[in-house]
Design brief:
Layout (H helix, E strand, L loop, with lengths): L1 H13 L1 H14 L10 H20 L4 H25 L2 H4 L1 H6 L6 H27 L11 H25 L3 H14 L12 H9 L3 H13 L5 H25 L8
Length: 262
Amino acid sequence: MSSKVWNFFFELYKFRYALSQLVFQQLILRYRRTALGYLWTLLSPLLMMSVMAVVFSSLFKSDLKTFAVFLFGGMIPWTYFSSVVAQSSSSLINNEGMIKKVYIPKGIFPLSIALGLLIDSLFSFVALFFIILAVGGTLSLGLLFLPVSFLLLFLFSFGVGLILSIATVFFRDFQHITTIALQGLFFLTPILYQPGLIDGKLGLLVSLNPVTPYIALFRAPLVDGSFPDIHILIQTTAISIVTVLIGLLIFLSQEKKFIFRM
């Protein structure tokens, strides 16, 4: 199996031009023929998070500026993760025509989505970061850790995307199940509230939620101005590596079979 994993990455490198074209196509076609074009990458999350900050700061009776920074720190990783998972689940089905016509590494499709959305997320983060500074955020050395946060989140999201892309080919209902599951998972992820705020069985579910430590990975530099706790770093690193490995093993074991289910 290790030889298959190495061959997987070798083929991705061999088809790097095709990968770059798929990523570029995502970035260009998403906002083609819109008046503001790629500016929507910056405006969409900014407007959405601004509305959420105003509404939920009022509901929770929190200071708007403080809650806005807190919310942005949670929404940045959640938006990326949920987008990758949702779009990767149908990535193979949506490219059925290309897969059947020419030979191309199948893993290139979920990978192109994860990379394209990562670029989107980085652009959005730059815009949101200036908003965070404007409403009370601070510059700190902890911000230097954010590239590591994005890398670990990318690996985790890509691993989940690999698994769901295969699962959806064999069980098409996964497209709809994934959408519903993400909606439920949003409320079990400490985006709108502190992790320790909920106790009992729901609190246990929040603590077992694999996305929860990634929220802390971003909030520490953005909200607290510090480096993440070492236990959080170890936990997210382990989750990312294990998820990618499991995703690769499942994907490679089914790669030659799913073509007959399309």
